[in-house]
């Protein structure tokens, strides 16, 4: 429970920018203003872009949002969970929907500085359609949708970040998009035509971050992502075509894969070719085989820019080769088959600040090998 003085002693910039920026707008208005010293003075002087709203899709909640509608211009983040409409076409239900639509339209008209929108379950696009006319909107997350793609044709907003998850991203025509997309995340099933439309899009050459699941789709066309630096994949099948896709992304700096098929030492060696990598995450990529020694790490000395490496849950036995990757700051090797001998030369990792070795075969001898790591701040054993 908030009490007078709990927040009053904190600097105003901490209250508004570090704490309240993560809180719901109405809760701030109803509670925080009562316990913050000089609330009104500071609240009126704050510049936009520091408040968010959570909306449950109901008529009552919409009315509550409009009670302080003169402050809605301060809101930059809007999160909405929409309950599915019942298939009830009685007059009362139709009237309720009409009233709700009018209330939502009023809310949207007041959100003149909105930058980030998150919507769950808006299968009819009723709410999304209203928001897509906001020119300040830059980030869009759509969850639990059955996607058609009409929203992609909206040219009012200038979306820089788009996330689609827990739905079916089928037959989307990204080549019709006129947004300056820098980040694209598709955590859903995607058709071949949708992937091809990304390759044909205006934003393909300027895209910087890409996160895709692609369980039933083989990647191709990597050379078209001229400015892509950050790639996350839910599934990598280790085929010649997908290996070619990765090597053709010349500016890749961060790579993360949540599931690697046919995981072996040769594939580890393959990743040593990416000399611009700063972050490599292959955690959880183990399989039932136990012949993965870790010898593929012998060429990781080429990764002179690598600062973070995650090989947790990868069934690796040998990691002594990593002692030559002296640029490493964060190293995660939890849940492997690593023994003390592999840590003998780890004292060379002078820049290491965090090391995770829990659930391995490490004894006191291995811990002694790590005692010379003077920069180490986090050690999990």
TrEMBL record:
Endpoints of the signal sequence: none
Highest taxon listed in the record's lineage: Eukaryota
GO biological process: SCF-dependent proteasomal ubiquitin-dependent protein catabolic process
Gene Ontology CC entries for this record: SCF ubiquitin ligase complex
Pfam families per record: LRR_8 (PF13855)
Matches recorded under InterPro entries: Leu-rich_rpt, LRR_dom_sf
PANTHER family: F-BOX_LRR-REPEAT PROTEIN 17, PARTNER OF PAIRED, ISOFORM B-RELATED
Protein name: Predicted protein
């Amino acid at each position: 429970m908030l009490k007078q003085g709990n927040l009053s002693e904190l600097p105003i910039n901490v209250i508004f920018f570090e704490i309240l920026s993560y809180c719901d707008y109405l809760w701030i208005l109803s509670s925080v203003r009562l316990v913050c010293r000089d609330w009104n003075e500071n609240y009126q002087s704050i510049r936009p872009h520091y408040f968010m709203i959570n909306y449950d899709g109901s008529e009552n909640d919409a009315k509550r949002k409009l009670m302080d509608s003169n402050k809605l211009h301060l809101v930059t983040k809007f999160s909405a969970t929409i309950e599915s409409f019942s298939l009830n076409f009685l007059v009362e239900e139709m009237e309720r929907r009409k009233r709700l639509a009018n209330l939502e339209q009023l809310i949207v008209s007041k959100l003149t500085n909105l930058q980030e929108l998150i919507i769950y379950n808006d299968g009819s696009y009723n709410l999304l359609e209203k928001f897509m006319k906001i020119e300040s909107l830059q980030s869009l997350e759509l969850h639990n949708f059955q996607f058609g793609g009409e929203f992609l044709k909206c040219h009012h907003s200038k979306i820089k970040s788009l996330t689609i998850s827990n739905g079916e991203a089928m037959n989307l025509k990204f080549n019709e998009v006129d947004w300056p997309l820098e980040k694209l995340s598709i955590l859903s099933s995607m058709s071949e035509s949708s992937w091809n439309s990304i390759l044909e899009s205006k934003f393909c050459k300027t895209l910087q971050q890409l996160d895709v699941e692609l369980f039933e789709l083989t990647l191709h066309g990597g050379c078209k992502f001229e400015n892509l630096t950050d790639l996350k994949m839910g599934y990598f099948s280790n085929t010649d075509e997908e290996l070619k896709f990765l090597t053709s992304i010349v500016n890749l700096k961060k790579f993360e894969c949540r599931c690697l098929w046919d995981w072996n030492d040769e594939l580890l060696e393959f990743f040593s070719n990416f000399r611009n990598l700063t972050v490599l995450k292959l955690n959880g990529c183990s399989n039932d085989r136990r012949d993965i020694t870790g010898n593929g790490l012998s060429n990781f000395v080429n990764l002179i820019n690598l600062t973070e490496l995650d090989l947790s849950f990868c069934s690796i036995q040998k990691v002594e080769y990593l002692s030559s990757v002296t640029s490493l700051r964060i190293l995660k090797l939890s849940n492997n088959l690593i023994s003390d001998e592999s840590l003998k030369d780890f004292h060379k990792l002078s820049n290491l600040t965090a090391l995770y070795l829990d659930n391995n075969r490490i004894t006191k001898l291995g811990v002694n090998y790590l005692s010379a790591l003077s920069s180490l701040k986090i050690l999990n054993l």
